Amino acid sequence: MNKNLTSNDLSHVIAADKARVWHHLTQHKPFESIDPRVMVEGKGMRLWDALGKEFLDGVSGGVWTVNVGYGRESIADAVRDQLVKLNYFAGSAGSIPGALFAERLVEKMPGMSRVYYANSGSEANEKVFKMVRQIGHKQHGGRKTKILYRERDYHGTTITALAACGQPQRAQQYGPFTPGFIEVPHCLEYRAQWDVEDYGRRAADAIEEVILREGPDEIGLLCLEPVTAGGGVITPPEGYWQRVQEICAKYDILLHIDEVVCGVGRTGEWFGYQNYGVKPDFVTMAKGVASGYAAISCTVTTEAVFEMFKDDSDPLGYFRDISTFGGCTSGPVAALENLRIIEDENLLENTNRMGARLMDNLHTLMERHAVIGDVRGKGLFCGAELVNDRASKEPADEKRVAAVVADCMAQGVIIGMTNRSLPGFNNTLCFSPALISTPDDIDAITTAVDGALGRVFG
Known about the structure:
single chain, Aspartate Aminotransferase, domain 2, 2 domains, seven-stranded mixed beta sheet, five-stranded antiparallel beta sheet, 16 strands, globular
């Protein structure tokens, strides 16, 4: 930890934080009697807080973001040099890093063509929703503006993004929402909604049933995560994505893959959808694009989508949208260096090897602890669903799941969980360590979970 900060300095920081900062996703009532945690420094996979406690970070910055680890001087240097040269100009003009990163990015995404910059995943998804609505008015006489989203998926924190939220507790108390968003069933086979052999195809067929109910000429977009993230780390059953693609083609529905969590290496491929042979019309990304070293999100489209907005016969025919901070040059220059690191250090290969080790370790824990009902994941993005009884699959109580997370934190290991998202089903432990993870890191994470499960569940 940085030794230049005195204890008085840190005490002042903690006091200022407690008095003035409104933290994300946090009930502040307890801070009337305790201090908030303040993180001070990070290096590789490790973090230190203001009290000097060291942590092994098993969730890449708390929200699946710091893919290449902390303390990357080359990214910081690249950002510093770019900011001195040109820090910003509105996205109505181009920039050197913006052009070069877009070029490098679409090289990793065969079939995709154009990159629209913004600064958060929520915003990136809203761009897609706006594009689809505009396409409906321009191409379909005001029809095909309804948007399908999936139960348990999450697409952002704005009012319209929450209209597409498959996690009821995240949306609770924030309505009324933007109309025209329709939910389709989830595809978690462990929580099977149909007793069939070909579960993947049946789960996808449920999407077609919603389309037929609403009217195919009303549906413009299907928005899905490649692997459901905060809804329980749900990997799609075999055959699911192939059938989804067929359905979209059959009814002329655009397909939007939300890669805000999975994108840029998390699943062992550059993008999660590439594990399943999907050909999307839109792909959105944010968290891992620059590993948290700068704010950036991308809405990536096919050339066919882009061409729909090249219409100078209509004065309103272009995409009339701006993201102010989409014009910051720090995001794409950080993303370029982030991309180079992943390539030069073979981090996709490491993600697959360490992801396999993490899954093996979790299955070993499953043999030791009956409270683990299911283990699932892809690459370095894994989950363990906790249950009171394996036969009935009764979900473990959220407070006890949170106690496991707190026990790991006390041991100096940070893990995650589904949290106040799904009534009765906030029972999945989440693991998403950085792509630089070593075997020792993976083992340390699961050893901490082993001890915590023993203490909390006996």
